[in-house]
Each structure stands twice: as structure tokens, then as C-alpha cells.
Amino acid sequence: MTYRLSLLDKSPIRAGEDAAEALKQTVRLARRAEELGYHRFWVAEHHNSTELASAAPEVLVSWILANTSRIRVGSGGVMLQHYSPYKVAEVFNVLASLAPGRVDLGVGKTPGGLPLATSALQAAYDPDRKPGFEERLAALETFLSGPAPANSPFAGLSATPRPPAGTEKFLLGASPASARLAAGHGWDYVHAGHLNGDTENLKASLETYRKESGRAPILALSAFASENAGHANAQVTELKIYKVFLSNGTSFSLGRREQAEEFARQAGDDNYRIEERRPNVLAGTAETIHAELSALSLAHGIEEFIIEPPPVAAEERLAAVELLARTPIPAAA
Question: How does DSSP assign 206-223, residue by residue?
């Protein structure tokens, strides 16, 4: 058994740079990923951020498609709670018509930003009538598959244009419930191991998807390779995430303590707590990282990994991506 490698990029804005430079580096990374044989290149969605430039993945996807020729390109992912499923279906049908057979639609449940950004994105919704995520996912599947059925309030409605080859569809999640939801709708499941490193949760989620869908799940991980293992570890050792736990039982992970505190303030919550954690990043030589990927592949039947490089300098990210692609996958995989 072997595995494919794909990439996820969040267009990090480094100190002294701006969003234009960050997006330029994302396109550069996508082009190189295509040359190196990576299977997919995905971009994320984050709002009101001074540190990440990808607020509109569908726009960035179209630009990357225009600047590449073979690699699959997609969203990792569209934050569906903010949008009309019909409009999302239209957008990705247009993309799939522009680049048939190369477009991926990944959707996620998280807000991708702080509460004020969420409020602005959802300002047109009546909170009492706002559909839940499962309802939105079902509607999106309907519009991507064809005209809405007769028992739908939108009977006969199609999301046009109809592309010659539709998008591949992925649900991003980090729990057995998300895995079950993906399987129930016939979508591929991507487990966010880069966001939730709990091994028991990972095992339960992957087993749930395989059991209920009969298909192999995909695992997303953060990894940084260097020819020198000490250098790789030094590059990621200062990385932190701050998880804010609100009094209503929800929790969110942010890149800085100030962001976590601001999240709670915008949510109007004075009774919160913040935990500082080390992000789950595989760091070392390309050989040691492939050995870890191989072990995960064998243990869980993973046939594809989506790798997110950490927010290091652009040249470091590029070098790490090249090393992983050029290093042979262990024979045991």
C-alpha cells in the first residue's frame, strides 16, 4: 500500500510582508507542487486576519487554476455556515467548467474567524430561521447533483452551469460525528489531524468513516521537513496555539493569546479560559516524516495525506515541500 501527498496552504503573512506577497508565494508554491507531483493543492478560508491572506478561497482557487495545468485545486475549506448552498454550488460549477476534472470542493463547520466577522458574514440571516450545518450540506449536495427534487421547496431548481466533470466533494472534520455525516452524504472525509492531534479521536473518526462508507479517509497533518532534523525542530518549537473555552461549552483554536482573548470579548463571554498548547507538527528529515506517514498509512489505511507546512518563511516552506516530494516513500508503505 502506498499513499499520495497533497498540500494545504493558508497564505501566511510574515512580518515585514503584506497580503499581496503572501498570495504570490501561495501561487508559487502551487506551481512547484504541480511540478513535484503533488496530487492536490488546497487553500483555506480565514476572515479579518492580519496574519493569513486567504479570506476568499474560491477566488484564490480560480487564480491558481489559471496558473497551473494539471494539479487538482480546491478549498480546504469553504466555511459553509456563512453561505447559501445554492451560491456555493454555482461558484464551484463555474470553476469546474473553467477547469474540468481539476476542482475540489472542501467544506468545513468552523467559522474561520472571530465572532464579529461571523456576524458580518451572516448579517442577512434571520437567526431563528438560519439552517443548521447538516441541512446546508444536504442542500449543497442536492444542488451539485442536479435539479432539486419535487418534495423540495426549490423543486426543479438547478445550479448552473453544469460542468462536464463535477467537483470532488470533501467534508473537513475532526470527530466521528463529522466522519458519519460525510459518509451519509457520500462525500469524502478529511480528518483534521493538524488541528486535533488526539490519537483516540483520530482512530475513532477514521474507523467510523471507513465502516460507514467503505472508502478510505484522508488525513490532514502539519509537517516540516529539513535536511537537518535539529533545524526542522528549531523552526517549529516556538509555534503555539491558544485554545479558548467559552462558558457555553464551545472551544476555538487561535494563533495568539491576544486573538483568543479577543474572541471571548467579541462573544460577550467573561467566564472563559485559555489553554496554551503546542501544535501537532511532524518535524524532522523527510525520511523520518515519511516513516511516520507510512506508519499512519498502515495503521489506518490512509491512501492520501494533505500536508500543511507551518507558517515559516516562504523559502523554508518551499524547501520542505521539495524534500518531501523527492524522498522515496518507504517500501513498507
Answer: HHHHHHHHSS--EEEEEE
